[in-house]
Design a protein that fits this description.
The complex is a heterodimer. By secondary structure, chain A is mostly helical. Chain A is built from 15 helices and no strands. In chain A, helix 4 packs antiparallel against helix 6, helix 9 packs antiparallel against helix 10 and helix 14 runs antiparallel to helix 15. Chain A starts with 11 loop residues before the first helix and ends in a 53-residue tail after the last helix. Chain A is globular and about 65 Å long. Chain A has a single domain, classed as Cytochrome c oxidase-like, subunit I domain (Cytochrome C Oxidase, Chain A), CATH 1.20.210.10. Chain B is mainly alpha-helical. Chain B has 7 helices and no strands. In chain B, helix 2 runs parallel beside helix 7 and helix 6 packs antiparallel against helix 7. The longest helix of chain B is centred in the C-terminal third of the chain and has 37 residues. Chain B is elongated and about 60 Å long. Classes of the chains: A mainly alpha, B mainly alpha. The interface between A and B is large, with 44 and 38 residues.
């Protein structure tokens, strides 16, 4: 056997200078998990403050800084890189039968660019933070007394890292597919990551530009969006959401790709309507560029614009619904086993459907006027972001854990924590729908006493969610060393990546897999993992 | 001069590729995707330009009369010529003429430097008149909001472009060193090609900026 990628070389230096996509994926896993912990800590502090209606243990300005950093850290340091840079990095080349990504050095550089962005943002944090919200809306962001510039520049740098990742995935998917593996033989996960990469490459530069302009406005008073100098703040919103709405799909499409892998494996059944699933990802990526105006319904855009953006937004729901139907169709008459990844799939479908339907609700202009900037919107996008992306991230880490580390996680603890995540999540965000509908605005430090009970429920739910996540982290870290050794294909999957030993050797496969035995060929017995003959 | 150059570099096929041709085709694809991404960076600013031009068209007319048409035009010539010398450098490499490659690269660098120098002179002239961006605007002749926005956009667009020119010059200098060392052979000179693609993008962006900022009156 060739040595696996974890043991091929030893020492910290061999990690920091590696160009192996699998090792870079592990470094991203560590970094994004730390970002999740940091962003989660901010969330806990925010929810703790909201236990009481009046002044709490933190100052109002501190509160504003906390929700800004919660958003910035979660969106740009966790949600966007989490699934592509970790699982995409690890499994996209494996699923294509490639020995590495197209540009391994660019891949390593993207990690250090990411760290630079994190460092800049955190420097901004200790320097006083920003109180603008993660959206940096002009004109407030250009005159805020806090230090907006380093955080905005940090976001720009994180965007550069994201472009590098996307570019690499696009080139790899086009050029490094194994001989005999056509586009329609590719795993759904690859389609999703590919669609995501296209969005990253097209939309991110525009966001980078928008935040740099805000930073220039703030630091040098450039006045591009300052009404006092003739600028139009709504233009900032256009530029910002031209990226940041597609960015929502950067966060959710990879999650859908993960689900598309988990479901056939745990239902032991071929993907229902593979092409619908594959092309709906591209459909979302395309339509996602034409919906940004739904963030601006109350910002003074014309009724016609609002109507067009509203209808375009609903197209996203059609593509998403195709996906949900496809997953459920795959389950139908499958032989389903309930591992932890499958439990996360059920959580995902429920939460994503709920979040998606409320998305259609807020894309309806007449309703949005009522709900805009209330907790209803907060609950809606957390249903997609946490209910969707985070549960898929957790599903992915459990699903691929044996492959990545060659160890099993404790199934019992997995089931317990998945249940706790689901219960904690609902307890946190269902009350927020009710709060928003009753009129509680987002980003407020205090609230009327009549909202007290629901806020306490929400905070308790957040604590439960926090405990479940820490529990997950603990048993996953413990299993790295003490978990039972994993077989190459513990789930009996037909997937390409499972035809390699666990953990995989440095160049992914001992012998190339045969793409003629499809990634979802569940009408055939599982392919044997090919080991070389013992000498 | 030609003979030792060809033997100096032995291009390595990376492990994930089955041929050098495939590796180079992938590098080219990656570069094109990157250039697409880059053009969207400029597209964002051009969208701002379009919006503000629509809102303040009279002021934009008045303000663009203050652009330095002479320097702008000379700079256009410089950049277009530098694209030509860049293409000639690649052509020379394909013919295996190392010395000629280096000379054409140096010519490209000189033209690019000339662009940057003239741009600096132009900026200095504007600043001394008080035509400064945003809150620093102090020109007394024209004081409407749209004029300030035009001037700010002028600095942002040309500044971003000049950054790209300067970055490109660093890349070109590195390519010239490698060309002199004999890294590029007629069959394998992908870095030179990619550098050339990037340099042409810088040129292309300027072809949009020149009419938008100088010629439309």
């Amino acid at each position: 056997m060739p040595p696996d990628y974890l043991r091929a070389e030893a020492g910290i230096r061999s990690w920091l200078t590696t160009t192996d996509h699998k090792r870079i994926a592990i470094m991203f896993l560590v970094a994004t998990t730390l970002a999740l912990l940091l962003g989660g800590t901010f969330a806990m502090l925010l929810r703790t403050k909201l236990l009481t209606p009046g002044p709490g243990f933190i100052e109002p300005l501190t509160y504003n800084r906390l929700f800004t950093l919660h958003g910035v850290v979660m969106v740009f340091m966790f949600m966007i890189p989490a699934i592509p840079a970790v699982f995409g990095n690890f499994f996209l080349p494996m699923m294509l039968g490639a020995k590495d990504l197209a540009f391994p050095r660019v891949n390593l550089a993207s990690f250090y660019v990411y760290l630079t962005g994190v460092a800049l943002t955190l420097w901004g944090l200790v320097h006083g933070g920003a109180d603008t919200g993660w959206t940096f809306y002009a004109p407030y962001a250009t005159v805020s007394p806090t230090d907006v510039a380093p955080i905005a520049i940090g976001v720009f740098v994180l965007g550069v890292s994201s472009i590098m990742t996307g570019l690499n995935f696009i080139a790899t998917t086009h050029m490094l597919r194994q001989r005999g593996l056509g586009w329609h033989g590719m795993p759904i996960f690859v389609w999703s990551i590919y669609a995501t990469s296209v969005i990253q490459v097209i939309a991110t530069p525009v966001l980078g530009l928008a935040v740099i302009l805000v930073a220039l406005d703030h630091a040098l008073h450039m006045g591009m969006f300052d009404p006092a100098l003739g600028g139009d703040p709504v233009l900032f919103e256009h530029l910002f959401w031209f990226y940041s709405h597609p960015a929502v799909y950067i966060m959710i499409l990879p999650a859908m790709g993960v689900i598309g892998e988990i479901v056939p494996t745990f239902a032991k059944k071929t993907q229902f309507s593979y092409r619908a699933l594959a092309y709906s990802s591209l459909g979302i990526a395309f339509v996602g560029f034409l919906t940004w105006g739904h963030h601006l319904f109350v910002a003074g855009i014309s009724q016609l614009d609002a109507a067009i953006f509203g209808v375009m937004s609903m197209f996203v729901a059609i593509f998403s619904a195709i996906k949900v139907v496809t997953w459920i169709g795959t389950l139908y008459r499958g032989s389903i086993t309930f591992g932890t990844p499958m439990l996360y799939f059920f959580a995902f479908v429920y939460l994503f459907a709920f979040g998606g339907m409320t998305g259609i609700a807020v894309a309806t202009t007449s309703l949005d006027v009522h709900w805009h900037d209330t907790y209803f919107v907060i609950a809606h996008f957390h249903f997609i972001m946490i209910g969707g992306t985070l549960t898929a991230f957790l599903g992915a880490i459990h699903y691929w854990y044996p492959k990545m580390f060659g160890r099993m996680y404790p199934e019992r603890w997995g089931l317990v924590s998945a249940t706790l995540v689901f219960v904690g999540f609902n307890l946190t965000f269902v009350p927020q729908f009710l709060l928003g509908n009753a009129g509680m605005p987002r980003r407020y430090y205090s609230y009327p006493v009549r909202f007290h009970v629901l806020n306490v429920m929400s905070t308790l739910g957040a604590y439960l969610l926090g405990v479940a996540l820490v529990l997950t982290l603990v048993y996953l870290v413990v299993s790295l060393r003490w978990g039972a050794p994993a077989t190459p294909n513990p789930w009996g999957s037909r997937g390409f990546e499972w035809r390699s030993p666990s953990p995989p050797p440095v160049h992914n496969f001992v012998v190339p897999f045969d793409p003629a035995r499809g990634h979802y060929a569940y009408d055939e017995p599982p392919p044997d993992v090919v080991h070389p003959e013992p000498p | 001069m030609i003979a030792p150059a060809a033997a100096a570099a032995d291009p390595v096929v990376q492990i994930q590729y089955d041929s050098l041709a495939r590796q180079h085709a992938t590098a080219r694809l990656g570069m094109w995707v990157f250039l697409g991404s880059e053009s969207l960076l400029f597209a964002g600013l051009l969208a701002l330009y379009a919006a503000y031009r629509f809102l303040f068209s009279a002021e934009f007319h008045a303000a663009s009369a203050h652009a330095n048409l002479v320097i702008g035009t000379v700079n256009t010539y410089l950049l277009l010529t530098s694209s030509l010398t860049m293409a000639l450098a690649i052509h020379a490499t394909r013919q295996g003429r190392r010395r000629r490659t280096v000379l054409f690269l140096l010519a490209t660098i000189a033209l690019g430097l000339g662009f940057d120098v003239l741009k600096t002179v132009e900026y200095a002239g504007h600043l001394s008149e008080g035509l400064a961006p945003g809150g620093y605007y102090a020109y007394e002749g024209l004081a409407a909001h749209g004029v300030v926005l035009y001037v700010t956009l002028y600095y942002l667009l040309t500044g971003l472009h000049a950054l790209h020119v300067t970055g490109g010059l660093c890349v070109l200098a590195w390519l010239a060193v490698r060309a002199r060392r004999g890294d590029f052979t007629p069959g394998a000179h992908i870095a030179l090609e990619l550098g050339g693609l990037y340099w042409h993008l810088v040129d292309l962006v300027w072809i949009f900026l020149w009419p938008l900022l100088y010629l439309i009156r």
